[in-house]
Structure formats: C-alpha cells, structure tokens
Specification:
Shape of chain A: elongated
CATH class of the largest domain in chain A: Alpha Beta
CATH architecture of the largest domain in chain A: 3-Layer(aba) Sandwich
CATH superfamily of the largest domain in chain A: Response regulator
Strand content of chain A: 5-15%
Largest interface: A-B, 93 and 85 residues
Number of helices of chain A: 14
Helix content of chain A: 25-40%
Strand order of the largest sheet of chain A: 2-1-3-4-5-11
Oligomer: homodimer
Order of helices and strands of chain A: HHHHEHHEHEHEEHEHEHEHEHEHEE
Structural class of chain A: alpha/beta
DNA sequence: GAGTCCATTGAGAGCGCTCCCAGGAATCGG
DNA sequence: CCGATTCCTGGGAGCGCTCTCAATGGACTC
C-alpha cells in the first residue's frame, strides 16, 4: 500500500534534471505517461472512457450525464467502459464549465452559542445533510469565530465555490446576507432575522420554528392546569427567538404583571438567577415558562433550594426539548418541542429549490419563508 | 411578527414560470453574452486583471500567487488591478490544473451516536475548523446515515474533490479507510481504531484522548477518597474508548471483583440499568466510575431511588465532562475531562502536515498518532 | 568592449469537461 | 422512390488558471 519510492523529491524543489517527474503535465511527454507506478494512479478521464467505448468524448459525456439522446447500444458500451475503468467525473473540470459546484455552504456565525452546547447544531446539520446529499450536493461548513473570519467567509462566499448558502444565527450587524446578496449567491437563513427592515425584505428567505406558537402552547398548558400566576423567564431579548417566545406568552396574558417577566440568557445559571428574581418579586407565583430547557433546569434548582415543590407548588415548562436536559432533570421537564432536524431539512430544500429554479428568483417570490410547528411534550414538571 | 402569508405552498410545488433572470448558464449563449443586466455580473478573470495591469496572464498569476520573481512596480500594478476589479481566483480552474482542492472531508459515520447528542461533535468541528481555516482549507462535511451513504461517500472521497479526510467513529467493518487508502487519499482517524490489525498498522494515523489514563485517574481519585469497593459502568465494549477506560480501571484494580463491572451503552438509561445491576450484585459498593457522564447521570438517579446518598454513601465519577450534564446533575458530577476541541485541532494539523509533506508518507513516519491528555474535574459527586 | 549570467516576462499548451453546431443516418410523407 | 424531418453523433471551442520554456535585456566579469 505504501506506494512511494523513498525519493526525497520535495514539492517546491526542482527535479534534479532528468525527465519531468510529475508524470509530465503534458500527455505526450514521452518518458512517463502512465509509467509512474508509484504515486496515485492517474485517474481515468472522459477521454479514456470514450476511447475504450469507441465513441466520441461528447457521447461519453452524454451517457455519464443521464444518457438522453444516445442509442441504447452505445449507452451500454460507454457504461461498461465507465465501470471497467472506474471512471469518476472530475468535478473541478465540470464546475469550470457549468458554473455549478454541487455544493452549498453552511455558515454558523455563533462562536459560543447554544449551537455548540446543545445538540441543536448537530441536528440541524443532519437535516441539512439528508436533504443535500439526496440531491447530490455537498456541504461545506464554515464556522465563524471572530471578526476576521467574517472576511474570510465573505471571500469564500464571493469566490463562487458554492452554489448557495445556509446562514445560521445571524446578528443584527451580520454582513453575510449583504455579501451573499452582492455576489448573487442564493441563501436561506436559519431563524427569523431580526435586524431593522428584515421583516419587510421580501428577498429574505428563512426557516424558523414557531416560537410564538410554542410560547402560547406552554402558557395554555399551564393555564389548563389551573395556574393563574404564571411567570416567564425569557432568553436574551435581542434575539428574535426570545422575543417571539415572550410574545406567545403575552398573547395569552396580555394584561400580565410585568413583575412576572424576567430576562435570562439561555444558560442554566441565568435561568436560576432569573428564577430567584421572580421569586423575590412574586413569591406567590405558581408556574414558570422558561424559554429554554437549560434555563428551566437552573430554575428548577433554585425552586428546589427555595423549598418549592415542582410541580405541586410551581409548575415549570421549558422550551426546546433537548433530551440531554429535559429528560434528566428532576422532575423531568415538560417542554415545548421543536423539530430541529426538520428545520435543517427544510432550509436545504428551500435553497435547493431556489437553485433549481435558478431561472427567476423574482417570480419565485411568494411565500418564501417557512415556520415549523412546535408542540408540547408533557413530562413531570407541569 | 407572525410573518406568514397564509399560503399553503408545499415545498414541491412548481413555480408559475417567468423570464430567466440569472443569465444563461452557458457563457457564450448567443443571445445574452454580457447582456444579462439582471443576474450576476461576470466575475473578473485573471485575463482581465492582466489586461488592466498591462501585463501578461502569467505575470498576473505570479502576483496573485505570492508575487515571487516579479518586479515590485509590476507587482503593485497587478495588485491594484486585482483590488479595483475585485478579482477572486476561480478555484475550479486552479484545482483543475494544480490538482489541489484546498479542502478536506470530515466524515462522521455514526448516525445516532453520542456525537449527536453530546456537544462532542460541535467541539470537534470547531477545533478542526480553526486549524483548517488558518491554512485556508475548507471543510466538507459528510454525514453517513445508512449503508447507502457509504457508497456515496466512498465515491466522493475517490472523486478527487478533497485533498484528505478526517474520519470519525469508525466501526470495525468500516470500508472508509480502505477506500481512502485505495485512492491514495491521506486521512487521519478520530479515536483509536479497533479492528484487528489496526494496532500494528503503521500507516494509520489517529488522534485519541487518553481514555486509559483517564480511567486510572478516576479510580485513583476514588481510592484517595478511601473507597475500596469501586465499581465501574463501562460503555459498549465493542468501542475502543470503552475498552480503554475499563483498562484504566483495571490497571489500578487488577484483582478486582468482576461483579463490580457492568456494561452500559453510553446512555443515561443504560447507566441506570447497569447501576441497578451493580447494586443488586454488590450492595456494599461505595464508589462507581461511569465511563460517560450520561451514564453517570442515570446511575445517580438509580442511586437516589435506592436511597444511597452521593457522595456520602457512594462516590461517583463520570467521564467526558459534558457541561450540559456534568454541571447540572445533583450533585454536580466529578468527572474526567478531555479536550475535544484540541483533538479536532490536532487531527487537522496532522492531516495538513501530511498534505504538505505529500512527498513521502513513508519517510514521515515517526510518531504519527497522538494521544491527548485527560484530567480530573472535581465537583460534588466524589 | 565582448561575453556570460541572471532576473523577468510573455507565449502557449494544456487540465477534463460541457455544449453548440453541423454532418450523416434513419425515418416519414407524398 | 425522393425530398424533408428528426435523431444521433463527433468535432471543436472554450471555461480560467498554472506552468514550462524560450526570449529579452540589463548587470557583471574579464
């Protein structure tokens, strides 16, 4: 397997002097050609397939790309040649002429976010991967960690290496959508974009889960349990998901006491702090809707320390249904489930459709964005 | 906020049909040419840069690629042209001739594994991303979900689209290493490969955390606490990480009672079951080393239900230090930490080095694989 | 002052593939 | 049985870039 002569021919170094080493970049370079037994065997080209099948390159190409308009007998012959040679099209060459990369970028611009601590990220990717690979597209992952990365990623997106992009967790000042737009790269956003004007921008396509509806369901469940002093721990209110969940809460409690609302930060600690605050302000509360399971777990701990029983004294509902957390708190968390994987799949599908309909983005307008449903999962905490 | 027109457009629906916007995909398609005002503006090519700078394409290329051997004045001129035109090299074209893709594949072949429930996955990717992007390489993510995917991925790896691959969570029968080897694609494995013969295969490069050492540290800690009847809940023993952790345990308890060993499956449930089993066999146990935090959390629950206090009656040590779990169990988990991100970074670095030294894999041998350290994190459970 | 050498530069040949276009075969109507 | 269509097929022109090779010209040596 170790197919390398122990020659020390370094990449930059010039060959000593003899015949070209690199297998000669020019086909007819006398000396080598196929001769280089050592390195990677030269991959068969369409040309060689055509030759073996006794047809022209054009015909071979047709067969490889579906075989429409080629007589069956020839098609078979070419197919056989392909199999025998183990021919695999050179994507670079194909891309060069078709301008299609069969690849989309997945950009995640949240260094320390929940995307990394929750299984969110992985699930999203899985959904995306499913959809993408079924259309024979690859997924190029671009992680943004600091400001400098924005430039790098921007350059990449503008470099024509991918046919489209899936953008996650954008912030208000995120330059990515603009960059993508400028270079004419189709993209779909994960999560409702929250910057000013985004709402009315009909060009923006995004997929989000029904955060508001989820908030409503949570409160509704709590109310159906007879709870009347329902508090809520929100996520950071500069994120649309937090705002939407809170809006859902407000939908059912339009005249609620502001003292029953505390802002957390999606972490267990933050949830705990918010819970303590709520308890101080309204010791009589009998239910809490936490906008994330992580915060709910922190709240649970604070409640326990305060001597409140869950769900008897205080009923708790979380959000996300992260198995790692929700199923293993004590008591297990009643929560709002969102189908992350499905969101990923949807995003990919939306993008793919757009790419297929390359034709006309404008006419394709209509209902571009999609909201995926959320639903209640009852466990022990409420 | 509820930004949705009440349209019921199913994903598969066909568009109404409109005039092509994005300009024909074929460069010289008579009709249009450059005329397509609407779509993407034609990207500048090296040719145009050269022309604008008044030099030849070759010189422009030299400047773009580092500018060695080009007179300063010309170099500047070309640089200016590049900036003004916003030139970005066409990677496909470059790849076509250089045979370098500046991209590596990351293959994860574990559909339902911990990789997806733990933040493991994300952390690995982050580490990889860091390293890769600093070398201006892209990361193509390939997720394997079922058997059919193996073929797809194999084809991809063999397709010459990437310069190397990072392979994760391989199983015994995993065909990927063989495929990669056959097509001469350099690769690095995440986690010690466990198939027969792998150990002695000097061609195999892998990065793993010091599972065995971690197991030792865990038991050592328990012993230092004065515990003498230390049980262990192992992971599935067909995985090297499980075996290694158990070996660590055995290193310190060579003559231990087999009744103190129970096999789990890395899930909380499995951990709980194993714990119950251990409790039944050895009611007098005073400590447990669980080979994962998830299993430890299940064990914790069973212990609580059995009326054992932790850590007073039974001390518990986990493994992984997954924040989501370890910091939020009751009591918080004392555990063994492994630096996942660093492992990712290391894998990428190893691969990159190999790619750079393309030259001769054989000579580069030396210490190919790397084991990253693990360390004890003391919280409340032991 | 002639000869030699080195640093620069440009010309041109491809990399492997797709697609336009035209020629030839096969098919069909009259 | 012949001209008009319709099908197939091969020829050939690039896609944008890198790299080899030869030509140019000035610096330097003797």
């Amino acid at each position: 397997m170790s197919q390398h002569q122990p020659t020390g021919d370094g990449p930059p170094a010039e060959p000593s002097g003899g015949a070209p080493t690199r297998g000669g970049s020019h086909p007819g370079t006398g000396t080598a050609g196929r001769g280089d037994t050592a390195g990677t065997l030269p991959r068969p080209t369409l040309e060689s397939v055509a030759e073996r099948a006794g047809v022209s390159r054009a015909t071979a190409s047709r067969v490889v790309n579906g075989g429409a308009g080629v007589r069956a007998s020839l098609r078979e012959k070419v197919q056989r040649a392909v199999d025998e040679l183990g021919y695999v099209p050179n994507l670079a060459a194909r891309t060069l002429v078709t301008r299609r990369n069969q690849a989309v970028a997945v950009v995640v611009s949240e260094p320390e976010s929940r995307l990394f601590s929750d299984p969110f990220f992985a699930k999203h990717l899985r959904g995306i991967s499913r959809e993408l690979s079924s259309a024979d597209n690859q997924m190029v992952l671009l992680l943004i960690e600091d400001q400098a990365d924005f430039e790098r990623v921007g350059r990449y997106l503008g470099g024509g290496h991918v046919d489209g992009a899936l953008l996650f967790s954008l912030h208000h000042s995120d330059p990515l959508p603009d960059i993508a737009r400028r270079v004419g790269l189709p993209f779909v956003i994960g999560g409702r974009p929250g910057w000013p004007g985004a709402e009315s921008d009909r060009e923006l396509t995004y997929v989000d889960s029904d955060n508001r509806g989820g908030g409503r369901i949570a409160v509704q469940h709590l109310q159906s349990l007879g709870r009347t002093r329902i508090a809520t721990i929100t996520g950071p209110l500069d994120q649309t998901s937090s705002v939407d969940r809170l809006d859902g809460y407000r939908d059912l409690l339009p005249y609620g006491d502001p003292d029953l609302i505390a802002e957390g930060d999606f972490t267990p600690d933050g949830g705990g702090r918010a819970m303590a605050e709520l308890l101080a302000r309204r010791p009589d509360l009998d239910a809490v809707f936490a906008a994330s399971d992580a915060m709910a777990s922190g709240a649970l701990r604070v409640l326990r320390e305060a001597g409140r029983r869950v769900p008897e004294d205080v009923a708790v509902v979380g959000f996300d249904d992260v198995e790692q957390i929700a199923a293993w708190t004590d008591p297990p968390l009643t929560t709002i489930r969102q189908d992350i994987e499905d969101m990923g799949r949807l995003m990919a599908r939306l993008l793919l459709r757009r790419l297929a309909g390359q034709v006309d983005t404008t006419a394709r307008r209509g209902p571009t964005s999609v909201i995926t449903p959320t639903r209640l999962v009852v466990r022990g905490s409420a």
